[in-house]
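Q: Fold this one first, please.
A: Sequence and structure below.
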Amino acid sequence: MSTKTKVLVIFAPTASGKTALTRELFSPQGSHFILKAEIISADSQAVYKEMDIGTAKPEADLQKEIPHHLINLLTPDRQYNVSDFVNAADKACEEIAVRGNLPVVVGGTGFYIRNFLYGLAPTPVSDEKLRKELKERIAREGNQALYDELSRIDPESAAKIHPNDAYRICRALEVYYLSGKKRSEYQTEGQGKLRDKFDFKFLVLQPEREELYDRIRRRVDLMFEAGLEEEVRSLVAKGYTKNSPGMKAIGYSEWFGEDGSFLPNSNNFSSADIEKIKEEIKHHSTKYAKKQYTYIRDIPGSQVINFSATENDYEKFVNICKNLLSML
């Protein structure tokens, strides 16, 4: 019997029902409650404060029922990266285990989960002078010019980075110019096996595709009904812009024009423009759902579960978790 801390890792795409699932399994209020756990969010946007509706954070009641970690850590103008996540997740797992609870890492940011399971690639330490030069080039030439440069140098890394993600574009270029090696090469080195720091149990939820897309579209409608526009307006009023790291998230970036202007502030902004933004968010969200699985393919020991959040699925998931955690 392993003496290492068991960590349950659940990857699930956006709008797949993972929040409801964690309530069912790990809240005493859930009808399928199996044991006391604490949730570690693997969501690159949930770390930002005041971005609640567009990131679909677990509601406050659920966070009272089950302790949640790595949510509401930073203001939207602060950068948060994968090394921040892995280091914080490691610390949280150790502290949760000391309390006698099960650490459960749950989220859809596959890049975070992959690096948590395998460990961080030993990329070169940041060079302030080079980083400053790249930032100045981004400001002068625009994101697309440097993204195109990265696509020529390291197409594999570029394929996993959004053209508007200036931070990751600069970092990938920085790695190449410092070392002469592509960042994608660092990410694949030494990733043949999972870290032995923890005893990982890794589950991948896989809803039926069209059903997932329908759920995504319904969720976006509910976000607008819940006041997404007002939430974004409030953030802009506090000084956050299109270039703020948090505001680059889907659900927020669509409210800005290419020139960085906040679209609702234009004189001719109408209800038709609201609908256009809503459709863009739906389109970007479904497109993102396709990409989310990129990082968690071929991970040793992963168990893929067809999941549609039905009663039968909950029962199936309970039994799988019990088997994985040696609880039968």
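Q: Good. Now the second chain.
A: Here it is, same layout.
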Amino acid sequence: MDKELYLKYWAQRYKDDLTKDIMPFWLKHGLDTVNGGVYTCLNRDGSLMDSTKSVWFQGRFGFICAFAYNHIEQRQEWLDASRSCIDFIEKYCIDEDGRMFFEVKDDGTPLRKRRYLFSECFAIIAMAEYAIATKDARFVERANEIFQLVIRYAGTAGLLDSKYLPALESQGHSLTMILINTASRLRAACADDSFSCDNEHAIETALTARIDASIDALERYFVHPEYQAVLETVGPHGEFIDTCMGRTINPGHCIETAWFILEEAKHRQWDKHLTELGLTIFDWSWQWGWDEPYGGIINFRDCRNLPPQDYSQDMKFWWPQCEAIIASLYAYQATGDEKYLKRHQLISDWTYAHFPDHEHGEWYGYLHRDGSVAQPAKGNIFKGPFHVPRMMVKSHTLCQEILSISHQPINPINPISPIP
């Protein structure tokens, strides 16, 4: 493999697909020009199937538009779309207790509220990224207010309804891992030297401590070397729960966790422990997730190799493939080990052969195990403009960074890092 040509190809492919396919599809079909915000329940051709709005995606698309603006091109239409989503959140999506709804009508009328804190987390990263784009500290301060609410609810017994009754004490992987990324994106806004906000140093310090706490919890409770796996649900002190639920491995989530940790390792000049932890989780999760007979990352596995309970266990969803593409580039950047570039080639070739819709644009979300399309809609309450465009922005940036570093003096400790 000619690594330079390979990385140049993918850097350009990510940018072209983002700017000519993914973003135009959602700006044309998804934006609500009457009420603000974004629709995600779109059919294959982009036509609206359901006007219900996912509050997750108001934050997610708000983030993506600002993220693309900050890292790809400074297009005003992207920045305007980000602001539209953030304004819709502030106007319609926050309940009297400060918590956010999960679904609302097109005009913002509340429909549903869940116990999870993900709507809040995605609003935080949208506001943080928009602050970087506009140099407006008010959005950092607002994001930090919501972040403090999330931490209070997550850390105070009884504020959130338990998923299970007291007979089953447990904790889940999802919130622990998402707080790493949420804190990281907010910290990046606080650290931006082109503008300032109140108490930014203290906020940065607290956010780093929050990241440390999340990574420590992941390593202490969810990482189970006896199964070479990160488990989705464990007891309050990491106890193994020998049920279908307790044995579940979600390779996509675990691979996403791996690149969150590798990103943090990179932020700390490739901290050795974090780098090794991220690589270990990625390697384990790849072994559980990569479907050798058919290709692609499979949905669910049982850590004792019993039949998984989830009905979609052998399907291929869009987002785990995206996480594997990002993680493989981070792993290669961290180590210079060509096995990770070959892993990137494996997952990229399979993903791009099956998910893009070359007739109507964007990507399918749900495939059968063999890669055939299970249903052709481009979005719903859970799928929309987030994982695919985030992968493209991140992967374009990573390819460019690796290419630029390859022309600098080599660091013998880390083959992909330049000599400081």
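Q: Anything worth noting on the second one?
A: The first helix runs from residue 3 to 29.
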